Amino acid sequence: MINMKSRTKLLNATKSVGGSVLVLGIMMFLFGFIVSGFEFLISIGIGTVSGSVFIFLIGLFFTATEEMLEKSYKGITPLDVKENPPLDKF
After folding, report:
1. With 0-12 CB in 10 A as exposed, 13-18 as middle and 19+ as buried, what is 10?
2. Who has greater pLDDT, 82 or 5?
3. Among candidates 25, 17, 31, which has minimal Cα distance to 47?
4. HEC sequence for 22-36
5. What CA–CA distance (Å, rounded) separates 50 from 39?
6. 25 or 4: which carries more pLDDT confidence?
7. Whole-angstrom Cα distance, residue 65 to residue 62?
8. Cα(first)–Cα(last) distance of the chain, in Å?
9. pTM
10. Residues 6 or more apart from 25 whose CB is under 8 A from it?
11. What integer pLDDT is reported at residue 44 of this predicted model?
């Protein structure tokens, strides 16, 4: 069984990686915006910021997927359903 501690570790790792990439992207954007000789850093900074958002969203998706998979083990799985259920129960 997967416990809550493993999901918390995954969420914290995603949060720290996404946050550090976000800070790096903001710094690159501001440096490219303020300093006149580095215009290419503006586009790289914008791409890095949007990449950090995607990293965080993918981490949230993985965490939610783990939780849903753990909950599916408690319920009825597709293997438990009979292939041809009787029609007289309707």
Report:
1. middle
2. 5
3. 25
4. HHHHHHHHHHHHHCC
5. 18
6. 25
7. 5
8. 36
9. 0.70
10. 45, 46, 47, 48, 49, 51, 52
11. 94
Output DSSP code: residue 88. G
Both tokens assigned to 14: 């995603």
What's the full length of the chain, in residues?
A: 90
pLDDT tens-digit series, residues 18-39 = 999 999 999 999 999 898 788 8
Angle of helix 40-72 relative to helix 4-34, nearest 10 degrees, comes to 170
pLDDT of residue 86: 60
By the 8 A CB rule, do 15 and 59 touch? yes
Residue 77, burial from CB neighbour count under 10 angstroms (0-12, 13-18, 19+):
exposed
Q: Is-contact 21 48, C-beta < 8 A?
A: yes
